[in-house]
Recover the amino acids of this structure.
């Protein structure tokens, strides 16, 4: 059991950070179990051996990418192009915009080809991802319960569609704590694509729900201030802001010296952390020290709000100890013109996603970073005009890093790419696996809320995908 | 299998575990059974194992194959004890469920030995039965004679005495005044209020201050914030595009209800079923908007049935959370694991709301969610009345007879008979959108339907030899047009946005016009006002396909010399294919020719003999509509109508709860909306909470509401007084505000809880009376401390608590100290400053945030636009909830993001500058006096010497710093929309702004002690 006997042995955790607690420092749940003086307090947190990953980068392809034009090759579907979709596949299933319409097969729009030493076949529109495909395990058998964007995102992030539940980044922050003193532990970035509709994303997706708010995701914005209110007011330079913060701290201490108010002491610590963030965030987003070679690798000129720029930012955050990094790209809702839209959107993400893997690997970070790539659902093998509708019965996901053996494929859909039929992976199985790689047991990571011990994976049984991570 | 690995709850280790105190089922046994056993042996029939129910005594004690699970005659042989003590295979089963400790098992054994008495769960027992008066003979109240002022204090004192504690001393006068003001108003007290109270801190003075606060509008606003977290009030739909909806009149209703101390039973009934009250007026119908506050979607591809099921579930969850503090929502998919609520009962509650007129997916316009109705303000009502009176007066003039009119009428008719219109020759017609025109008899044209929704037609012809002084457009019916025309729009209408006449490229102005018919709001003058897109001439009327015509007088004569080319453009950019369908352009040789329905013209040509009475009346109307004698009045009428339309458009709407034929409600297996096999259910209430029946009639929301507040419901009053108690004492008597079920906490002071509940009901649900009783008690007035070092004090209410103010009040307090705060009550939502791009994740439509202007920027936060998916970042940083669901208790986090918001949000910087400015203008010239006034405004105390030294040092440093950087000084004091006072030196104001920022950011400034 790899539990430090004293909190001061916790990685990256100084004595001072522990004492000031709160945003920096050890995870709340971990702390509870440490204070209980046992590795297996009943119902408390139990780390499962050495964690394989310290951090997660979730490349979130929002809108629902078609698995049929990305990672799930379906030659049978091509043969049935334009033919009615066999009833045996679709009878009694919930559809979104196609509900009640005549259903016809739409052939995959692009050829697939083999990449890498593994020879894994993916769509030819993703050549850069293909060049690093030996790092990835392709999961072809995802399924979810929610067929519309907003509920599907909520399910993917929180394990349920009920509002008020914590997102996985918050759970992970809660379970493991932060690894740095100047930046948030859970950061969200997003970019907007030019193909398809850019569906809205609610702040619920990175909310801490019933967990304390300090576990909430913080948005790193590409327009205006990188973090809300991180910039000093007009006319206030860093020295003057420092004077103000210093005066606040000293006055708080002088009053609290008598009252012994730990909340006031904590507030003072938060002001000091805020002041440090005011320096750390601009340093984080300043790409001027990145060599041209790196900018070229990702395909970005600098901080321009593009997916490429956000991928580079994700690497910088990984280096600086951010625990959970979620990079949304809003451009995958291809109801019409899936061919043209896919070409655009693939081009927007292919190079930078591959660059992130390459860059992390050469810096030695890939081995303890889990990379996830995929969307909230897939798209129908049936056409919606020349596009595809939302689809929840089968879609694909990629995992890399964290020691996951690459160049492999797991699970499969039926010959037409409709339903996952082999080694089916529900979203909650993915959640359980992510937590497992971080050393967390999804059945143990729970929180007492309204008389219930709630957890990310919910009440249905969830399984760790041992065949994927072994 | 139990579903979850339970934590070991500290509360199980109660006194009875280790002592020989009598075992109390509610306190000691039920939580243990509920936590460890009920998941498989409880109310949920779907998860029940071995047919055993440990939540029912009858099931537990019955004989099963020679043994009993609970055997009171031979307790140690009870199967329950044998199994939990089984070393090899203990219950609960499996490695994830820790076995019971021996102490817990021994507790069970003692309980069984004592007869295994089951009590009804405390929260479901009737209130009155429990409320025994505090014993008077007990000497335990003596330590602090005179401390107890009433029943609250006596009961709290009893509890403290039992725990061996004494109450904390009374808080100092300043803290108490601040506490009362923040608790009751959400605002700091004035310096004068604090000083007067310090002068005379008597109970009498305190009660006077309390009454002053309780009767203020600010108190009603404060309670409204409390209520809104519960009922999830927000300005937007919450799902997907998160569109704005129409709801703000409901906010005004809630404020008014609290301001008038509406009894809580009425408050409940009007919100749940105001529309169903026999004498429902506008106010009750507004209140019923409560039923429309659930999250709704407009996302394309959503299935209406699925979302209707969600809306129902959302309503059941909210009503049971708010009024019953029960987790009935758990029963949506399965019978409740711990509490006596079945899935069927969940859907029976849902059936109460099946009558609400709604749709599953709102594909109506962006911000309309029908049904809705208008709620004019008193001022708007007055304006409408005045406009209506003025219009009546003008109409009177317009319809009166006079000799002058009579003689004018004669020449009008003569003119009509004589008027001559010709169709120009060699006409070319074109369309910007590529429409084609089919030519009919006498120059009539028929526009083709296909093409853009907006278009501009151009008619060109050589100027004829005869002079032209006027242009006429006739609109003609056509059986092939929608609604018989004359336009191409789906209702047969058209809008002529702008008509322009050019000769050889030069515009010939139109000096007068008249039409045979104008649709209200679309007068012909709009068609030659030189503005594209600001309305136009339209002709929608009841009578389908009626022809109309419009006449345009030109400023000068055109043609006549045989030279030049005339070009008439007809812009029609209204959209929605509001285009001319069948029409004709003619030219006339005289101005002031009347516009006339073609049929009348034909009749007049025939010397007028064929005119019926009705025709003559039409002619009279036409004459009055066109004669220059009435031009002024007609102009006045058009102006008044336009004004009325503007007033109408500004009237707030509110979503309406309208009862229609109830939709069928079925039990959905595991909540699956596609499953149609479930049992059909009618409205009903959970049997554990009482009964509600009616003779053959279907129960309604009104029945539900009245049942909640009929005084017999065991939960509603307890739940409410517990919430109110927590508002003023920092924690509930039942600590789990939102769970009064068996998994929730048990009351620390059951008698106190019932005393307050009983008083509430007996007083006629007088909320103000309840609040007054709490905040004037000695219990409330105790000094505060942080609960950490003596937790028992907190548990037994032997001290007050300190906590950070709620998000809204942090903002309100800063604005109050700065003098910027606007105390206007009610009205539509306002928009404070917000960082640009904060809404960039929203779509359908994309939205650009525009802050309010002027005074609206400084309203209380309660009035700020509440975007569920993106709550204002400053409020969110201080834990303002999204209001997607009922929030009983906000967390009080302490994060760097909150520090950044309070340091850097422009509203707080502007407040600091305004505070500094106000201080400099009012406190003379001495730094010490200025500092004292500033400190008084924020903290209602003078700075201590060490504080003053530190602050004056900062002041001096920043004076020097800003003197070196005057541009920075100017930039700092320019933050915000209000202008800095130009009589103050910018560097001095900037330096004092730094001092004010320190004050507003102090822990003490945002904490209620």
């Amino acid at each position: 059991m790899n539990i430090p006997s004293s909190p001061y042995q916790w990685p990256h955790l100084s004595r001072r950070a522990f004492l000031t607690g709160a945003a920096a420092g050890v995870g709340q749940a971990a702390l509870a179990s440490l204070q209980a003086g046992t590795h297996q307090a009943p119902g408390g947190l139990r780390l499962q051996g050495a964690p394989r990953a310290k951090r997660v980068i979730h490349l979130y392809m929002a809108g629902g990418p078609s698995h049929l034009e990305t990672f799930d090759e379906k030659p049978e579907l091509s043969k049935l192009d334009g033919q009615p979709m066999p009833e045996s596949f679709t009878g009694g299933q919930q559809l979104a915009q196609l509900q009640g319409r005549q259903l016809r097969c739409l052939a995959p729009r692009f050829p697939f080809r083999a990449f890498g030493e593994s020879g894994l076949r993916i769509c030819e529109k993703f050549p850069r991802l293909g060049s690093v495909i030996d790092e990835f395990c392709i999961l072809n058998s995802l399924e979810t319960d929610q067929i519309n964007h907003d509920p599907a995102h909520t399910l993917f992030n929180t394990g349920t569609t009920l509002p008020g539940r914590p997102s996985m980044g918050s759970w992970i922050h809660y379970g493991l704590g932060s690894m740095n003193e100047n930046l948030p532990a859970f950061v969200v970035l997003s970019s907007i694509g030019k193909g398809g509709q850019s569906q809205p994303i609610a702040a619920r997706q990175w909310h801490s729900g019933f967990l304390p708010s300090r576990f909430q995701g913080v948005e790193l914005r590409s327009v205006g201030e990188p973090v809300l209110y991180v910039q000093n007011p007009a006319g206030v330079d860093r020295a003057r802001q420092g004077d103000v913060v210093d005066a606040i701290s000293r006055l708080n201490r002088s009053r609290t010296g008598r009252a012994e108010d730990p909340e006031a002491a904590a507030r003072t610590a938060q002001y000091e952390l805020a002041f440090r963030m005011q320096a750390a965030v601009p340093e984080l987003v300043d790409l001027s020290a990145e060599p041209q070679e790196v900018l070229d690798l990702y395909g970005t000129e600098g901080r321009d709000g593009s997916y490429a720029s956000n991928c580079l930012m994700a690497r910088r955050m990984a280096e600086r100890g951010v625990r959970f990094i979620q990079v949304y790209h809003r451009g995958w809702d291809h109801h019409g013109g899936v061919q043209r839209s896919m070409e655009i959107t693939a081009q927007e993400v292919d190079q930078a996603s591959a660059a992130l893997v390459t860059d992390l690997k050469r810096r030695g970070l890939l081995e303890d970073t889990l990379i996830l790539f995929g969307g909230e659902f897939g798209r129908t093998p049936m056409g919606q005009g020349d596009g595809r509708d939302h689809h929840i019965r089968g879609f694909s996901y990629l995992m890399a890093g964290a020691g996951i053996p690459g160049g492999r494929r797991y699970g499969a859909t039926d010959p037409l790419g409709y339903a996952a039929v082999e080694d089916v992976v529900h979203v909650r199985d993915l959640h359980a696996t992510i937590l497992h790689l971080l050393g967390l047991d999804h059945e143990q990571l729970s929180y007492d809320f309204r008389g219930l011990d709630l957890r990310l994976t919910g009440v249905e049984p969830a399984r760790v995908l041992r065949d994927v991570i072994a | 299998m139990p579903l979850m690995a339970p934590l070991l709850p500290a509360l199980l280790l109660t006194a009875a575990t280790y002592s020989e105190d009598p075992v109390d089922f509610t306190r000691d046994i039920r939580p243990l059974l509920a936590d460890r056993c009920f998941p498989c042996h409880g109310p949920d029939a779907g998860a029940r194992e071995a047919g055993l129910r440990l939540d029912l005594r009858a099931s537990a004690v019955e004989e099963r194959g020679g043994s009993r699970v609970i055997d009171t005659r031979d307790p140690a042989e009870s199967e329950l004890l044998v199994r939990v003590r089984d070393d090899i295979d203990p219950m609960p089963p499996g490695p994830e469920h820790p076995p019971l400790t021996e102490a817990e098992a021994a507790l069970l054994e003692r309980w069984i030995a004592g007869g295994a008495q089951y009590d009804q769960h405390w929260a479901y027992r009737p209130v009155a039965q429990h409320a025994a008066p505090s014993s008077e003979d007990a000497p335990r109240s003596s330590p602090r004679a005179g401390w107890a002022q009433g029943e609250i204090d006596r009961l709290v004192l009893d509890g403290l005495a039992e725990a061996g504690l004494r109450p904390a001393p009374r808080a100092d006068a300043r803290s108490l005044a601040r506490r009362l003001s923040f608790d009751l108003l959400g605002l700091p007290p004035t310096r004068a209020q604090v000083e007067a109270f310090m002068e005379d801190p008597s109970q009498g003075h305190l009660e006077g201050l309390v009454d002053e606060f309780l009767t203020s509008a600010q108190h009603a606003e404060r309670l409204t914030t409390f209520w809104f977290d519960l009922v999830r009030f927000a300005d937007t739909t919450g799902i997907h595009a998160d569109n704005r909806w129409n709801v703000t009149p409901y906010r005004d209703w809630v404020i008014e209800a609290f301001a008038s101390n509406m009894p809580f039973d009425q408050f409940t009934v009007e919100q749940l079923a105001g529309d169903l009250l026999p004498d429902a007026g506008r106010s009750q119908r507004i209140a019923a908007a409560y039923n429309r506050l659930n999250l709704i979607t407009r996302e394309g591809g959503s299935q209406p049935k699925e979302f209707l099921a969600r809306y129902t579930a959302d309503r059941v969850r909210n009503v049971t959370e708010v009024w019953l503090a029960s987790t009935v929502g758990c029963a949506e998919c399965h019978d409740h694991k711990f509490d006596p609520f079945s899935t069927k009962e969940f859907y029976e509650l849902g059936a109460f709301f099946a009558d609400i007129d709604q749709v599953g997916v709102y594909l109506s316009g962006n911000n309309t969610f029908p049904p809705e109705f208008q709620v004019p303000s008193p001022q708007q009502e007055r304006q409408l009345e005045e406009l209506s009176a003025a219009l009546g007066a003008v109409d009177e003039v317009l319809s009166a007879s006079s000799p002058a009119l009579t003689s004018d009428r004669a020449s009008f008719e003569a003119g009509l008979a004589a008027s001559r219109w010709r169709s120009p020759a060699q006409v070319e017609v074109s369309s910007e959108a590529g429409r084609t025109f089919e030519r009919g008899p006498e120059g009539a044209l028929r526009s083709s339907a296909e093409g853009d929704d907006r278009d501009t037609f151009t008619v060109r012809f050589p100027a004829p030899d005869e002079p032209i002084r006027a242009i006429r457009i006739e609109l003609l019916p056509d059986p092939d047009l929608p609604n018989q025309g004359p336009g191409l729009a789906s209702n047969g209408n058209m809008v002529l946005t702008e008509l322009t006449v050019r000769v050889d490229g030069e515009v010939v102005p139109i000096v007068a016009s008249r039409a045979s018919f104008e649709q209200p709001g679309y007068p012909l003058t709009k068609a030659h006002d030189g503005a594209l897109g600001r309305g136009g001439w339209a002709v929608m009327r009841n009578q389908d396909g009626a022809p109309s015509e419009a006449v345009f007088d030109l400023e000068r004569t055109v043609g006549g010399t045989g030279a030049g080319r005339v070009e008439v453009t007809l812009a029609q950019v209204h959209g929605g294919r509001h285009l001319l369908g069948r029409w004709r352009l003619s030219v006339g040789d005289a101005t002031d020719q009347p516009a006339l329905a073609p049929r009348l013209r034909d009749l007049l040509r025939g010397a007028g003999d064929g005119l019926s009475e009705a025709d003559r009346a039409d002619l009279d109307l036409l004459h009055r509509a066109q004669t220059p004698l009435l031009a002024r009045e007609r102009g006045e009428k058009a102006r008044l109508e336009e004004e009325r339309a503007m007033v109408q458009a500004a009237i707030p709407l509110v979503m309406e709860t309208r009862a229609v034929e109830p939709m069928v409600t079925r039990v959905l297996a595991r909540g699956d909306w596609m499953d149609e096999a479930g049992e059909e259910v009618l409205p009903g209430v959970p049997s554990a909470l009482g009964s509600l029946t009616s003779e053959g009639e279907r129960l309604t929301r009104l029945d539900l509401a009245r049942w909640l507040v009929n005084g017999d419901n065991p939960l509603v009053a307890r739940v409410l007084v517990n919430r109110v108690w927590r508002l003023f004492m920092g924690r509930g008597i039942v600590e789990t505000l939102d769970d009064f079920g068996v998994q929730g906490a048990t009351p620390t002071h059951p008698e106190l809880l019932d005393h307050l509940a009983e008083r509430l009901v007996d007083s006629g649900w007088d909320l103000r009376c309840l609040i007054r009783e709490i905040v004037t008690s000695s219990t409330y007035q105790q000094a505060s401390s942080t609960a950490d070092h003596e937790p028992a004090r907190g548990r037994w209410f032997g001290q007050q608590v300190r906590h950070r103010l709620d998000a809204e009040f942090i903002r309100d307090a800063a604005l109050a100290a700065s003098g910027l705060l606007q105390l206007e009550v009610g009205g539509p939502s306002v928009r404070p400053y917000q960082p640009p791009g904060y809404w960039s994740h929203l779509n359908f439509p994309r939205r650009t945030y525009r802050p309010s202007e002027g005074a609206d920027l400084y309203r209380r936060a309660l009035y700020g636009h509440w975007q569920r998916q993106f709550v204002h970042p400053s409020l969110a940083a201080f834990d303002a909830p999204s209001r997607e669901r009922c929030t009983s208790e906000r967390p009080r986090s302490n994060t760097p993001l909150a520090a950044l918001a309070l340091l850097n949000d422009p509203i707080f910087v502007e407040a600091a500058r305004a505070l500094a400015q106000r201080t400099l203008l009012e406190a003379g010239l001495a730094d010490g006096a200025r500092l004292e006034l500033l400190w008084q405004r924020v903290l209602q105390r003078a700075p201590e010497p060490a504080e003053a030294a530190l602050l004056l040092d900062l002041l001096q440093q920043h004076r020097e710093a800003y003197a070196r950087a005057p541009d920075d000084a100017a930039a700092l004091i320019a933050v915000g929309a209000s202008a800095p006072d130009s009589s103050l030196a910018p560097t001095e104001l900037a330096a004092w702004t730094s001092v004010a920022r320190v004050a507003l950011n102090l822990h003490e400034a945002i904490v209620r002690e």
